[in-house]
Amino acid sequence: MDVDLLLDPFGARWNDMRTAAQLAEELGYGGIWTWDHLAGQAHGADGVLECWTILSSLAAVTERVMLGPLVLNVANRRPGLLATMAATLQEVSDGRLLLGIGAGGGEGTPYPPEQTALGGEVPSNPVRRRQLEETVQVIRQVWTGAVEPWEGEQFHLGRAHGFLRPDPPPPVIVGGFGPRTLELAGRIGDGLNTQARHPRLAELVDVARRAHADAGGDAEAFLVTVFANFDPRWATPGHEEHDRLQAVGVDRLILQLSPPYDHTAMTELARQLPPHDPR
User: Fold this and answer.
1) Are 22 and 59 within 8 A, CB to CB?
2) Which residue has the higher pLDDT, 260 or 147?
3) Domain range spanning residue 28?
4) Which CATH number is 70's domain given?
5) Coil, strand or helix at 7
6) What's the pLDDT at 119?
7) Number of neighbouring beta carbons within 10 Å of residue 235
8) Domain count across the chain
């Protein structure tokens, strides 16, 4: 199980994120992730650094760690544009992108105001799931290098060619918390992301893996990623929380750090990580 860090961008500064990411790489962490949000008000911050700009910048100042958004809200970027952005970042990072993607926060979460304030809409859960599915379909079409006419409920493509083709394509990791979204993750994605503390974690992972197999994929290769607040117990073999994740087959554990990012805590936890395997 790889141990990654999520650098919380709310109220963060670029210099602090860069320093933390470079230290994480030096210490042997497997990857760096960050949230995709547009306004700091959701978490009481004066501002939030934009996800894709940060990941692109981190790709230029790191060499080994994987890089991922946790997770991109499909409402924030048109899918065809996102496909080309992802293909570009995959090349810039030398194949280190993990493309986390999700339906975005709906009503009842703190996040709709950042969409509506900028002229966007926050539709119902079923509509947002359809938008997520269509977005992944569009991305995969664009990544083939030649887009044929296609029309969905939300997005439309015309005939074109010459799109940048990522080699290899980054894994598409679909974030969610319920069985409908994680069944969708298995059916259209290469992996899932959810909360490490989810009380139904084992059940949801099984739902996604079965859906992936039913769609013709390799259930054993399906990536399971989970996130939690920074706590060494999650990464400590023999601890109940760690062993539960191992039993479920979690591939990547993502621990969240809030600014100004505790370098001492990062260093202490890194001492118990296995040596990084460059393969």
Assistant:
1) no
2) 260
3) 2-270
4) 3.20.20.30
5) strand
6) 87
7) 22
8) 1
Q: Which two tokens stand for residue 216?
A: 């013709």
Domain assignment present for 239: yes
Is 38 inside any structural domain? yes
- In the numeric block, which tokens belong to residue 261? 């990012």
What is the model's pTM?
Answer: 0.94
Query: pLDDT tens, 227-258?
Result: 999 999 999 989 999 999 999 999 999 999 99
For residue range 11-52, list pLDDT tens digits in order.
Answer: 999 999 999 999 999 999 999 999 999 999 888 899 999 999
Alpha helices (H) in 94-124, listed in sequence order: 112-116
Token pair, residue 232, equals 């060494």
Tokens 């042997």 correspond to 28
Encode pLDDT of 56-110 as tens digits.
Answer: 999 999 999 999 999 999 999 999 999 999 999 999 999 999 999 999 988 888 8
Angle at 122 between CA 121 and CA 125, to 5 degrees: 145
DSSP line for 169-193: PPPEEEE-SSHHHHHHHHHH-SEEE
Is the distance from CB of 138 to CB of 80 less than 8 angstroms? yes
